[in-house]
């Protein structure tokens, strides 16, 4: 993987941290990641990346990078369930996936941090006062766009009932996504909640509805 997003960033080692990259498979064994959920979220993230491409505008070469973010977003659950977003951020600062270019390591850790709680304008302002704000503007922007997709992908598997994207209808300033599966009602509601970051970044509104029963 060698995405060229035109950004550059000082390595974390220059900030006094000496990261030790690990291959993805090592994360699943070392940190007890729930593999089925991770795989579902990764699948969802790739589908959302493709379906919403005309809005998010991310370089297609970053598609695999989004998938990797999805696979490790819950890495902190076993370490600290209640604050697993914080635990995940700290783990990934020290152990970024070796499949990811060094300049994108910070995005992996901050995406894990941003996947859990509600996000509003006030939280984004406070975020910029932390280590997040020390990143270059282009990396901050990329982090938020990736996190917006991961939040939606995670919400689509909230019920753990194998919900999937169904029909997608594009309007002038909105996109309606139907959710299929036994957990469709639960997951559509969860996606509406976790779409908060998306709606801070983009003017195109997302609507989530359970697919009509056949």
Give the topology.
Layout: H1 24-31, H2 35-51, H3 53-56, H4 63-72, H5 84-94, H6 105-114, H7 121-127, H8 137-155, E1 164-170, E2 174-180, H9 184-194, H10 196-201, E3 205-210
Helix pairs in contact: 2-4, 2-8, 5-6, 6-8, 8-9
Short description:
With 214 residues, the protein is mainly alpha-helical. It is built from ten helices and three strands.
Observed structural traits:
214 residues; mainly alpha; Hypothetical protein af1432; three-stranded mixed β-sheet; 9% strand
Question: Can you offer a commentary on this structure?
Answer:
The protein is built from 10 helices and 3 strands; from the N terminus they run H-H-H-H-H-H-H-H-E-E-H-H-E. A 3-stranded mixed β-sheet has the order 1-2-3. The model is unreliable at 2-14 (pLDDT under 50). It is mainly α and 214 residues long. The chain is globular, with a radius of gyration of 17 Å. The N and C termini lie far apart (41 Å). The chain has a domain at 20-159: Orthogonal Bundle (Hypothetical protein af1432), CATH 1.10.3210.10. Helix content is 48%, strand content 9%.
Uncertain runs are 2-14
Please work out how many helical segments DSSP would assign: 10
Major beta sheet, specifics?
3 strands, mixed
What string gives the helices and strands in order? HHHHHHHHEEHHE
Number of strands: 3
Question: Distance N terminus to C terminus?
Answer: 41 Å
Strand order of the largest sheet: 1-2-3
Q: Could you tell me the mean pLDDT? A: 91
Reported by name, the CATH topology of the domain at 20-159 is Hypothetical protein af1432
Query: What structural category do the secondary elements indicate?
Result: mainly alpha
* Name of the top-level CATH class of the domain at 20-159: Mainly Alpha
Outline, from the CA principal axes? globular
Cα-based radius of gyration, to the nearest Å: 17 Å
């Amino acid at each position: 993987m060698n995405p060229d997003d035109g950004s550059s960033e000082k390595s974390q080692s220059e900030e006094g941290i000496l990261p030790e990259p690990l291959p993805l498979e090592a994360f699943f064994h070392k940190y007890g990641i729930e593999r089925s959920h991770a795989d579902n979220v990764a699948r969802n993230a790739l589908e959302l990346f493709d379906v919403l491409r005309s809005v998010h505008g991310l370089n297609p070469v970053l598609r695999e990078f989004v998938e990797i973010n999805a696979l490790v977003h819950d890495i902190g659950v076993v370490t600290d369930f209640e604050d697993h977003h914080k635990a995940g951020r700290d783990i990934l600062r020290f152990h970024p996936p070796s499949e990811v270019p060094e300049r994108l390591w910070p995005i992996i850790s901050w995406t894990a941090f941003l996947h859990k709680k509600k996000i509003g304008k006030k939280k984004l302002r406070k975020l910029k006062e932390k280590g997040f704000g020390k990143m270059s503007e282009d990396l901050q922007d990329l982090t938020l766009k990736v996190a917006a997709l991961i939040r939606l992908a995670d919400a689509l598997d909230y019920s753990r009932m194998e919900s999937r994207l169904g029909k997608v209808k594009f309007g002038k300033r909105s996109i309606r996504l139907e959710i299929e599966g036994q957990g469709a009602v639960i997951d559509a509601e969860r996606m509406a909640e976790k779409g908060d970051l998306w709606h801070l970044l983009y003017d195109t509104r997302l609507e989530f509805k359970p697919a009509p029963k056949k």
